[in-house]
Design goal:
The protein is mainly α and about 150 residues long. It has helices at about 5-15, 35-40, 45-50, 60-75, 95-120, 125-150.
Length: about 150
């Protein structure tokens, strides 16, 4: 596996879970600052609150990230079927079980993307897909973490 791919896998892990246990800091976050731990402290009502007036709720961003990561993992595995990219933004109601399912779906999507990236060395264009996906996910994750902390 090339160094870029190995580094992308580490960054994906940090984005999801934070830096490795025992690390004083990560590449872009402090210990315990992963997206999944940040979301674990929210209930369904908090996840359904819009991030700002007229904007989608946090739950929609979580659903979007799960869809994005799953789509990229499928693409890297040879599947090119496009999902309904508008669907995550339509979330208007959410109970605790649905919120838990969304968080579990995001955790599964992170794990799926990591598994695909660890399976074999990616070609140049595939590395571009992985890197673009990580950048897209990190931008949303940063916004979500900011919102969760406020």
């Amino acid at each position: 596996m090339n160094l870029l791919q190995a580094h992308l896998i580490l960054l994906l892990h940090e984005l999801a879970h934070g830096p490795d246990v025992g690390a004083d800091y990560g590449h872009f976050s402090e210990p315990g600052a992963g997206l999944l731990p940040a979301l674990a402290g929210l209930d369904a009502a908090q996840a359904l609150a819009p991030v700002a007036a007229g904007r989608p709720p946090l739950a929609a961003f979580v659903a979007h990230l799960a869809q994005l990561l799953t789509f990229a993992a499928n693409q890297l595995s040879g599947a090119t079927e496009f999902p309904d990219f508008a669907a995550p933004w339509q979330i208007q109601a959410l109970d605790e079980a649905q919120w838990q399912a969304l968080r579990q779906g995001l955790a599964s999507a992170f794990a799926g993307m990591q598994a695909v990236m660890q399976r074999r060395e990616l070609e140049s264009e595939e590395l571009n897909v992985a890197q673009s996906t990580l950048i897209h996910a990190a931008s949303h994750a940063g916004a979500i973490r900011f919102q969760v902390q406020n």
